[in-house]
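User: Show me sequence and structure for the first protein, then do the same for the second.

Assistant: Starting with the first protein.
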Amino acid sequence: MFLLARLHVESLASAASLTIKHVRQKLQELPTTLDASYDNAMQRITDQEEDHWKVAFKTLAWVTHAFRPLSLRELQHALAVEPGDSELDEDLMMDAPSITALCAGLVIIDKATGNVNLVHYSTKSYFENTRQKYFAAYHASITLSLATYLT
């Protein structure tokens, strides 16, 4: 399964500065199921600095809760909106490589359409099953961001 291999590569890439012995150990510890690989990716996200994991969770919340695929520009705007602001601060807009890197391989940007998508349809299913665990607080956050953006 290519997706599982891709998730494994992402996991190993996060340990790139380790010794050969550490890499071998990581290889032995790689998850054998997609859900376990997704759990591993989410753990790598939460292990990042607070500002980074917050952006990753916000990105994943927007992408998983949107009724249609978001364009990169739409997602950049969504991530840059700060509740209470009267104008969009373009200096808060993140570039595509930063967004995807923070999300531990769980989101991709389709080069043909420019849309931001989850890496695989099973990723959507995973987040539907773990919505309460990861995104319970984001419904209000998304609503507040939308209200701020529209005013």
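Switching to the second protein now.
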Amino acid sequence: MLNVETLHPSQLTPADTALWRSMAAAEPAFANPLLGPDFALAVGRVREDARVAVIRRGGETLGFLPHHRRPGRLARAIGSPLSDYHGVVSHPDPGFRAEDVLRAADLGVFRYTGLIDPFGVFGGVGEPQAAFVIAPEGSTADYLEAVRAASPKKIKNYRRLDHKLEREMGQVRLVAPDTSRASFDLLIAWKREQLQRTGLHDFLRPDWTSDLLTDLF
């Protein structure tokens, strides 16, 4: 019989988080920090409604479903709208369906945007869509040489623009990682200005979003 224990992230045991990490590390589709326990723990520090459905059968832990428990038996993906990828993290062939998990957790709806479901727990809900990822291979020098060989005119134009920018604005530097709080605050201010200018919802207005980003920073 499937047993689902719903916990606040702070209630997870070290064994729970260790198993969650091992499940995520074993499946490339879960190789995203938004799907790991550390993100859920961070959200739990700023949101009381953060929850993790710990899925068990016969004393064995089979998977984890992080979410926000909202009124009306509604579950929203953990960290929404600051997280883009959601789903149940488990080993292959977990032996349960998402609807069984929701029922056992007394949830009627799980609302998500980008569903990661390599093991078909959600039964093929929705339509798959292609997504872009940055997957660099080889050295930086090899990459630049390949781009130069494929698009010599484009590289020449980039250099011209780089020199023009340096003449007009001074030396351009790339600082990575930039750990200064001033740069962090400036980035947040730029994003909020963009949201206001474009008429989009300012998801950075609530205190919990700024608290979460500050914590992660």
